[in-house]
Amino acid sequence: MSYSFLLVQLLYFLAAFSFIYGLKRMSSPKTARQGIVVSGLAMLAATLVTFVHPELFGPEVDSLNLILVVIAIVLGSGIAWWSGRVVKMTDMPQMIALYNGMGGGAAATIAAIELIHALEHELDEITLILALLGAVIGTVSFSGSAIAFAKLQGLINKAFSFPGQRLLTLALLVTVLISGGMFFVDNANQLALLVFFACAFLLGIFMTMPIGGADMPVVISLYNALTGLAVAFEGFVLQNPAMIIAGTVVGAAGSLLTQLMAKAMNRPISNVLFPQTSSGGGGGEEVGEMKEASFNDAASLMAYAGLVIIVPGYGMAVAQAQHKIAELTTLLGNHGIDVKFAIHPVAGRMPGHMNVLLAEAGIDYDQIFDLEEINQDFANTDVALVIGANDVVNPKAKTDKSSPIYGMPILDVIQAKNVLVIKRGRGRGFSGIENSLFFQDNTRMVYGDGAKAVADIIANIKTMLD
Fold first, then answer.
1. Structural domain range at position 428
2. 258 and 323: one domain?
3. Residue 198 included in any domain
């Protein structure tokens, strides 16, 4: 065994250690940025280390192929850097879904190349099984993430289904298993391999199409986990320890996050992936009407409150109102008013979406609480300010068994003495479910763009208190 090979393995180990360390740093908002930088540098190092020992590419790699690899790395890095710089925070969930899919697609491509090689050179059984597993998981993650991206981007309906769709999905799954088994038995069966990949691709599409908007954060997390697992399997196939460790860490973290988010919605993952009905309906029309409040009315309620709890949602991100919310928080705090933030585990359209926005605006971490920590405080809250949130504060989750979100734990905003809801219009939210909170006697609607509405409320509060 050459010293160069040992050096490469040592550097791979250090890169893998850095992955884990970076992930650990991401567990706190205060150190998350550092964790991302460390993990990114580790990935860069793991990529560059490969060139130290070119034999790791395989004996068939020549100088032209190495040049193509370098071009691919430069192009991919450039596109990623540019897209990361220009993407809006409101579009971050779509980017996460897209990049999840790219990772799964890359793993599936590696698997495809190895399986094509198996047509000429027989692979050992363990390697063949791992390649097939990585292929199907990566392909499903790729096509499913593409559909999730299209839903979040508004390119297709949030929940699309047709009679017999679940049977078709099951048939695709069975076909994937059968064709994969046929190829395992006979490595020269090109038709079985083609059917295997085609059905895996369609499986990801038909699994994701009927899933509604309220479940998108869980789906994104799940596909993130699947991409990690696919990378880990292909790492075993290529005997690449960096891929094995990085993929395993991502798969484990994504799986845990998916379970926690499904638990937060009080729904098994099977119900998310295979909904009985579309997530876009539920419950019928509400009795009564939404009562409007002026900016001055809203300011009066908050200016003389003792405790204000702010519940942010995706609408805050769309309006880019987080900085105005931070200004409002500072203003109220300077006048002795206690301000807290209530974050639901699936608020926004990706895990941690609201936390990122609030951190960007400079909100003190000590003011941010999750559902379990703050729910009991709403009963003693003078004003609950909801900006852009919908499903996570919808009482139908507790009262309407016909609602798609029935059983999901919610923020008990309805228990506050006064509820102010900043909303652009009278329409329903992303999931399409009517929110009964908006029709309650203690709720007032403040219509307008989120950032402008908060700015007007701030101006009125200053007039009252200064």
1. 295-465
2. no
3. yes
Query: Structural domain tally of the chain?
Result: 2
Other C-beta atoms lying within 10 Å of the C-beta of residue 311: 27
22-26-30 Cα angle (round to 5) = 120
Q: What is the pLDDT of residues 235-258, one digit of tens each?
A: 888 888 878 888 898 898 888 888
pLDDT for the residue 2: 62
308 DSSP β-pair partners: 339, 383
CATH number at residue 330: 3.40.50.1220
Do 171 and 101 belong to one domain? yes
Residue 278 domain flag = no
Distance CA 156, CA 158 (A): 6
Would 338 be classed as within a structural domain?
yes
pLDDT, tens digit, 9 for 90 and up, residues 3-35: 667 777 788 888 888 888 888 888 777 788 889
Q: How far is CA 114 from the centre of its chain?
A: 30
Sign of CA dihedral 163, 169, 172, 177: negative
Is 285 a member of any domain?
no
Integer Cα distance of 101 and 96 in angstroms: 9
Reported confidence tier of residue 290, pLDDT bands at 50, 70, 90: confident
> 192 and 328 in one domain?
no
Biggest alpha carbon–alpha carbon distance for the chain: 81
Asked if residue 265 and residue 333 are part of one domain, the reply reads no
Among 105-119, 210-224, 264-278, 435-449, whose mean pLDDT is lowest? Answer: 264-278
Inter-CA distances, 42 with 29, 47, 69, 252, Å: 20, 9, 19, 19
Please compute the mean of the pLDDT values over residues 305-316 and round it to a whole number.
Answer: 91
263 and 305 assigned to the same domain: no
Mean pLDDT: which of 151-165, 240-254, 321-335, 397-411 is highest?
Answer: 321-335
Q: 418 with 326, same domain?
A: yes
Residues whose CB falls within 8 Å of the CB of residue 248, separated by 6 or more in sequence, listed in order? 228, 229, 232
Based on the domain organization, do 183 and 248 belong to the same domain?
A: yes
β-sheet bridge partners, residue 447:
423
Residues with a catalytic annotation lie at: 391
Structure tokens at 138: 């990566």
Same domain, 333 and 401: yes
Q: Closest by alpha carbon to 395, among 407, 379, 382?
A: 407
Q: Is the pLDDT of residue 277 over 50?
A: no
